[in-house]
Amino acid sequence: MTGKFTRLRRRTDGRARAAEAPVWRRLPALPKLLIVTQFAFNVGFFAVLPFLAEHLGTAIGMAGWLVGFVLGLRTFSQQGLFVVGGWLVDRHGVRPLVLTGCVLRIAGFGWLGYADTTAAVIGAVLLIGFAAALFSPAVESEAARQAVRWEEAGHGPRTRVLALFSAAGQAGAFIGPLLGGLLLLADFRTACLCGAGVFVLVLAGHARLMPRHTPGREAAGGTGPAADGGQDGADGGAVRVLLRDRRFLALACAYGSYLLAYNQLYLALPDEVERATGSQAALAWLFALSSLLVVCAQLPVSRRVGERLDLRRSMAAGLLLVAAGFAVVAVARPAGWTGPAALLPAAVFVVLLTVGQMLIVPAARAWVPDFAGPARLGLYTGWLSSVSGLLVLVGSSATGALLHAGLPPAVPWLVLAALPVLAVPLLPRRRPAAS
């Protein structure tokens, strides 16, 4: 009897030690491939795009408004068309969308490197954006699907896998600009061609390693797994079901409020850094701070939060932290501090915004499968990004006007702080039946 008890205890202890092992070591091959893909995507993307505005203004000679228009077109062709990419993922599967998107991204970067007219530049950036609208919903929705399978197998919360996915993307966003800065010592064309080279490697890797039938996929209306290229997974009926799902639409709006807040890293934060120091030189350090926080802290934060908070509470806490970041700057602005010390409120804002991001993004991605079910995950993932992108497009225009409306200095930041707080009641209070 004692021997049986000892063997049982050893098996139990072995399972406990396995559960505490690093997530990466315990993941199957497909989730690992998706995580590495997200890292590589961002390395290739951020090696080129952060330097596009300067290239268009200096080398091409575009006017400032036209540069902004081109950058806006790229964002729209990506975020605005995510729902199309998601629909195609449900219809045709992950593998063909990733491969097609990589081919288009390679062509777009190559075209951009040699584009020397406005029409050629517009064509190239539209192709670059549409490529992401194909492969990003495929990779993100499949990462969420595999995270759910991981959780159902008893390995731990799905948010841990999605946190690793987010951290890998942020690591790529950190390394990409460093690589691009080195490549620009040659010229912008070299940066574009090397960015295309990264996607050539991703294309080759997926052509060899991505399974033709992805485990866990179902066709819409089916009762079991279906081949990736099989039955239509997102017909008009699926879209109607989505549009009647008020709780999911509310979740998308709440997530959009976070993205609008995060977008202030590129709108309100540069304005504050310029006011405080007279230049934007410190902006790069604040961006680096944000990226390093996610790379270093995303996994431990997600592990501890996953043990204490459900998905709704995690998103709510993240939104309140984001609001607190704006409030810190709002409180400090009336003092009118300048100089290096005046960057402290901006740094606190970046830290709180980034910690809020670490709570919100994995939770939102983990929540989508509960609404979509396995057959419509691409459509729902794409819709989440498209709705959020539309809210950011409209909200950013309003924010720009607010920041330069001559109001008391604290008012714009207080308004921005109120938006995430108002989004908290939109979060659904119970998980849908699909869970």
Describe the structure.
This protein is mainly α and 435 residues long. It folds into two domains: 28-214, MFS general substrate transporter like domains (Growth Hormone, Chain: A); 234-427, MFS general substrate transporter like domains (Growth Hormone, Chain: A). 77% of the residues lie in helices and 0% in strands. The chain has 18 helices and no strands. The protein has helices spanning 2-20, 23-26, 29-46, 52-60, 64-80, 82-92, 94-114, 118-152, 158-183, 188-209, 236-243, 246-262, 268-277, 283-308, 311-332, 343-372, 377-403, 410-423. The longest helix has 35 residues, at 118-152. It is globular and about 60 Å long. The chain starts with a helix and ends in a 12-residue tail after the last helix. The relative contact order is 0.13. The model is unreliable at 8-20 and 219-234 (pLDDT under 50).
Features:
transmembrane helix, cell membrane, MFS_trans_sf, 435 residues, transport, Growth Hormone, Chain: A, 77% helix, 2 domains, transmembrane, mainly alpha, 18 helices
Break the fold down into its secondary structure elements and pairings.
Layout: H1 2-20, H2 23-26, H3 29-46, H4 52-60, H5 64-80, H6 82-92, H7 94-114, H8 118-152, H9 158-183, H10 188-209, H11 236-243, H12 246-262, H13 268-277, H14 283-308, H15 311-332, H16 343-372, H17 377-403, H18 410-423
Helix pairs in contact: 3-8, 3-9, 3-10, 4-5, 5-8, 5-17, 6-7, 6-8, 6-17, 7-8, 7-10, 8-9, 8-16, 8-17, 9-10, 9-14, 9-16, 12-16, 12-17, 12-18, 14-16, 15-16, 15-18, 16-17
